[in-house]
Design a protein that fits this description.
Number of strands: 0
Shape: rod-shaped
Helix content: over 70%
Structural class: mainly alpha
Largest sheet: none
Order of helices and strands: HHH
Radius of gyration: 31 Å
């Protein structure tokens, strides 16, 4: 601080207080933005490392799903014997089974997504603490 920022009785002027608050606010915002960037970079690194393996796994699982579904349909076809609609019934039965299982999986996935937030938790906690600190500082200054 320079001598011009104090009044005659030794108290700081309003302009110097506002300038100091502005500088502190810039510093806090810059720090928080850097924290958010670091947290997002860390998440992206983890995603980038696992993405190729996830794609290979998805192709393998999809292939296995199709083969197992066709095997199940063929097994059900045998159960219908000489019925001319045996293929239709087999595909219908397997289709409804997958529909029910898929609906259950979607229900559980939806519940998981509702329970967990995708917002960076550390950054939000720090920002809330900063907000509380800033409010207390403003109350103290007034």
């Amino acid at each position: 601080m320079h001598a011009g920022s104090y009044s005659a009785d030794g108290e700081r002027s309003l302009a110097s207080l506002i300038a100091e608050i502005r500088d502190e606010l810039k510093s806090v915002v810059t720090t928080r933005v850097e924290m958010l960037k670091a947290e997002l970079r860390e998440a992206m690194t983890a995603i980038a490392a696992g993405l190729p393996l996830a794609l290979v796994a998805a192709v393998m699982v999809a292939t296995a799903y199709l083969l197992l579904t066709l095997s199940l349909v063929a097994l059900i076809v045998v159960a219908f014997g000489d019925n001319p609609y045996r293929w239709f019934f087999a595909f219908l039965i397997v289709g409804f089974a997958w529909l029910i299982l898929g609906g259950m999986a979607a229900f559980f996935a939806w519940n998981q997504f509702r329970e967990h937030s995708f917002v960076p938790k550390k950054t939000v906690e720090v920002l809330k603490a900063d907000k509380a600190w800033l409010q207390s500082e403003i109350r103290g200054a007034v």
